[in-house]
Design a protein that fits this description.
By secondary structure, the chain is an alpha/beta fold. The protein folds into 4 domains: about 105-170, no CATH class; about 180-300, ATPase, nucleotide binding domain (Nucleotidyltransferase, domain 5, 2-Layer Sandwich), CATH 3.30.420.40; about 310-485 and about 515-540, no CATH class; about 545-630, no CATH class. The protein has 26 helices and 9 strands. Helix 15 (about 380-395) packs across helix 16, helix 18 packs antiparallel against helix 20 and helix 21 packs across helix 22 (about 565-570). This is TTF-type domain-containing protein. Pfam families: DUF4371 (PF14291). It comes from Dissostichus mawsoni (Antarctic cod). InterPro entries: DUF4371, RNaseH-like_sf, Znf_TTF.
C-alpha cells in the first residue's frame, strides 16, 4: 500500500488536450453519489456557470481544464488529478477556483503585454530578436532575451513572474515571437483595409520595388497610396520573397499581397514603379499585366528616380567629368585607411577648430542625394584633404603612389568643377528632397521640375553666374596655393599615319586641356546643356497629361478654370464632370482667393470641395491627388535589409 500510495495519480484519458475545447459531455443522466444520506449527481447547468469545467465519464468527476495544463493556476489539487465529485459543495469550490483562475489569467495577461512590447520594440527598431546561442551559458542571448533582465532590474514583478512561470508559460520561445509579429502584421493590414473602405470611392495607387538582400534572395515590397480623412498615406502591405523576377512572377506577388485588402480594381488610379524594362515594358511589362485587372491605372515612373538619372547623366557628360567623380570616390576610399584616416581627422581638428569632424562620402547611381553630399563634403574639407595628401606624398609605398595620383586635385580645372557641381547640386537638392516626400502632389511635382529647368536655363544664359564661379575658384586657389590649371595636354599626341592628310578636330574619349577661363566656360556650358536636355527628355510635356489637369484645378495656375484641361483625366477615370458643376466650383474658389484664402496644393483645394455639393469634382480631385509621384516609400522598406 505504501508503494501504491507513492505512485503518481494521472488525469483520466477521456479529457481534452491543450488544443481542444473542454470535454463537456451532456448525458441524459449522470450517476448519483450518496452524500450526507442524499443521492446527488453532476448537472450540465454547471457548464454554463464555469466554462473551464470538464467532466470525466470514467471517474464521474470534474476537472479544471486550465488547472490541468497549468497546475500553478489553482490551489485545489483535486481539480488537477483525482477529480472533484463533492456535488454538494461544487458551486462554492468552483467559485473559489474561478477566482484563483482569474488571478492567474490577469498575471499572464500582464506578462504577455511585456512580451508583446519587447517584440514590437525590436521590430520597430529593425534589430534582430534572436541570438546566435540562447542557452543560459551564452554571453549574449539576443536582443529579446537580453532585454528582460534589464527591465526586470527596475520592475521586480516582471522578474517574479519569470521565476514563477513554468518553462512553457514564459512566452519567450521563437515560435511565440513569430506569432506575435504575424498577429501585429495582420492587425495592421486590417487597419489599412478599414481605412481603405471607410469612404465610398476610395481611390488608391500601387507602389512596388524589388531588391536582392545579402543572402541573394530576391525580395518584392508592395505599398498602397490612398487618402484617408484628408491626408495622403502610403502604407507597406507586403514584403515577399520571389524565386523569379520576370514580369509574370512579380505581378503574381503583387496580386497576392493585395488580395486580403479586397480592393475594387476600378478605383486603382496608378502604379508607381521604377523604370526597369521588366516594369515599364509596353508589351510584357508588369504594368501592362496588371492593367488587365486595374483598367484605369496609369504607369508612373518614379519622378525622384528620373531626377537621379539626370544627375547620373551629368556625371558622365565627358571624360574629364567622369574622371573627376572617379577621383572623388577613390579619394573617399583612400581616406578610409587606418593611418590615413587618423591623420585626416587630426588635420581636420587643427584646421577647423571647434567644428565637428566630417567623413567623405561616395557618389552612387542608386543612392539619391549621394552626388550632392559627396561634392559638398569634398568642397568643405578641401583644405584638410590637400594637407593629408601632401603628408602622404612624402611617405613611401602604396600610400605615396595614391597620394601622388590625387595631386590632380591641386589644379584649377578640378577646383572649378567642384565649385560648379556644388552650385548645380544645391539647386537640384531641393527638387530631389521634394520629390521624395510621400505627400507631394502633382502640381508640386510640376513646380519643382519646371522650376529646376528654368534655373538651369537662366544659369546657361547668364554670364554673371560664370564669373561668380570663377571668382570662388580663384579664392580657393589662392587660399590653398594652387597655381596649375590642368594635368592634361602636357604632351602632344601623335596621330596615326593614316590620318596624315586629314584635319582632326576632336578625338573621342580624349579630355581637352584647360588653359584659360574660356575652357572652363565650355565645360560649364556642356554640363548645363546636358542637364537641360536630360530634364526635357525624362520629363516631357506630354507625360504631364494628368498633371496638366491637376494644374487646371489649382487657383495659382495660369490654366486654372480651363475645362478642356480636365477633360482627359475625367474621361480616363470615368468621372462625368458636368460643365455647370465645374464652373460653379471654379467661381467658388475664385471668391475664396479674393477673400485672401490660399491653396498651396490640391489637398487644400479638395478640402474646399464638399462631396454633397460637388460630388464629381470631389471624385476627380481625389483621383488626381492619389496618383503616385514617387516610389521612395517602398524604397525605404529595404533600408534595413541592405
Amino acid at each position: 500500500m505504501e508503494e501504491d500510495a507513492g505512485l503518481e495519480i494521472k488525469a483520466p484519458s477521456d479529457l481534452s488536450t491543450i488544443d481542444e475545447p473542454a470535454t463537456q459531455p451532456k448525458h441524459g443522466s449522470f450517476p448519483p453519489t450518496t452524500l450526507a444520506g442524499k443521492p446527488r449527481c453532476f448537472s450540465v447547468r454547471w457548464y454554463g456557470l464555469f466554462p473551464w469545467l470538464e467532466y470525466s465519464t470514467s471517474r464521474d468527476a470534474v476537472f479544471c481544464k486550465a488547472c490541468r495544463h497549468f497546475p500553478e493556476a489553482t490551489t485545489v489539487d483535486r481539480f488537477i488529478k483525482t477529480g472533484f465529485k463533492d456535488w454538494k459543495h461544487i458551486s462554492q469550490c468552483c467559485l473559489n477556483n474561478d477566482a484563483c483562475n482569474r488571478s492567474f489569467v490577469e498575471r499572464n495577461r500582464e506578462h504577455i503585454k511585456v512580451v508583446i512590447d519587447l517584440v514590437l520594440f525590436c521590430a520597430k527598431q529593425g534589430i534582430p530578436l534572436r541570438g546566435h546561442r540562447e542557452n543560459e551559458e551564452a554571453l549574449n542571448r539576443g536582443n529579446f532575451l537580453e532585454l528582460f533582465p534589464k527591465i526586470s532590474h527596475y520592475d521586480p514583478e516582471i522578474k517574479r513572474r519569470l521565476d514563477d512561470l513554468p518553462g512553457n508559460g514564459k512566452l519567450t520561445s521563437p515560435d511565440i515571437q513569430n506569432e506575435i509579429l504575424q498577429i501585429a502584421a495582420s492587425l495592421l493590414i486590417r487597419k489599412i483595409k478599414t481605412e481603405l473602405h471607410d469612404e465610398t470611392d476610395s481611390f488608391y495607387a500601387i507602389l512596388e520595388d524589388e531588391f536582392k538582400d545579402v543572402s541573394k534572395r530576391e525580395l518584392v515590397a508592395v505599398c498602397i497610396r490612398y487618402m484617408h480623412k484628408g491626408m495622403i498615406k502610403e502604407r507597406t502591405v507586403g514584403f515577399l520573397e520571389t524565386g523569379d523576377m520576370d514580369a509574370n512572377a512579380i505581378s503574381a506577388k503583387i496580386l497576392q499581397v493585395l488580395e486580403p485588402l479586397q480592393l475594387d480594381p476600378k478605383l486603382c488610379v496608378g502604379f508607381g514603379f521604377d523604370g526597369a524594362s521588366v516594369m515599364s515594358g509596353n508589351k510584357g511589362g508588369v504594368h501592362m499585366i496588371l492593367k488587365k485587372k486595374f483598367p484605369h491605372a496609369i504607369y508612373v515612373h518614379c519622378h525622384s528616380q528620373r531626377l537621379n538619372l539626370v544627375l547620373c547623366a551629368a556625371s558622365k557628360v565627358s571624360p574629364g567629368i567622369s574622371t573627376f567623380f572617379d577621383v572623388i570616390n577613390n579619394l573617399q576610399s583612400f581616406m578610409t585607411g587606418t593611418r590615413r584616416h587618423a591623420r585626416f581627422i587630426e588635420i581636420q581638428k587643427e584646421l577647423r577648430p571647434g567644428k565637428p569632424t566630417l567623413e567623405l562620402e561616395r557618389s552612387c547611381d542608386v543612392r539619391w542625394s549621394s552626388w550632392s553630399c559627396a561634392v559638398s563634403k569634398v568642397l568643405t574639407l578641401l583644405g584638410p584633404i590637400l594637407e593629408t595628401l601632401a603628408d602622404f606624398s612624402q611617405s613611401s609605398g602604396h600610400s605615396k603612389i595614391k597620394a601622388n595620383y590625387f595631386s590632380r586635385c591641386r589644379r584649377k580645372k578640378c577646383v572649378f568643377i567642384l565649385v560648379m557641381f556644388n552650385r548645380l547640386f544645391e539647386m537640384s537638392e531641393y527638387a530631389t528632397k521634394g520629390l521624395q516626400c510621400s505627400t507631394i502632389s502633382l502640381t508640386d511635382c510640376i513646380d519643382l521640375i519646371e522650376g529646376l529647368k528654368e534655373n538651369y536655363t537662366t544659369l546657361r544664359k547668364t554670364e554673371a553666374d560664370f564669373i561668380k564661379l570663377v571668382t570662388l575658384t580663384d579664392d580657393l586657389m589662392k587660399k590653398h596655393d594652387i597655381i596649375n590649371w590642368d594635368v592634361t595636354g602636357s604632351r602632344k599626341r601623335r596621330l596615326p599615319g593614316k590620318f596624315g592628310d586629314s584635319q582632326i578636330e576632336s578625338t573621342l574619349g580624349k579630355a581637352s586641356p584647360v588653359k584659360d577661363n574660356s575652357d572652363l566656360k565650355n565645360i560649364r556650358n556642356h554640363v548645363l546643356d546636358r542637364q537641360i536636355m536630360e530634364l526635357d527628355t525624362r520629363f516631357k510635356a506630354d507625360t504631364y497629361g494628368f498633371m496638366r489637369a491637376a494644374a487646371a484645378l489649382l487657383p495659382r495656375s495660369s490654366t486654372f478654370g480651363n475645362n478642356e484641361s480636365i477633360h482627359p483625366a475625367s474621361t480616363h477615370f470615368s468621372i462625368c464632370v458636368e460643365v455647370a458643376e465645374h464652373e460653379v466650383f471654379v467661381q467658388q474658389l475664385k471668391r475664396k482667393v479674393t477673400a485672401g484664402i490660399t491653396f498651396p496644393s490640391l489637398v487644400e483645394v479638395l478640402d474646399s470641395c464638399p462631396t454633397d455639393i460637388f460630388p464629381q469634382m470631389n471624385r476627380l480631385l481625389r483621383a488626381l491627388v492619389t496618383l503616385p509621384i514617387t516610389s521612395c516609400t517602398v524604397e525605404r522598406v529595404f533600408s534595413t535589409v541592405i
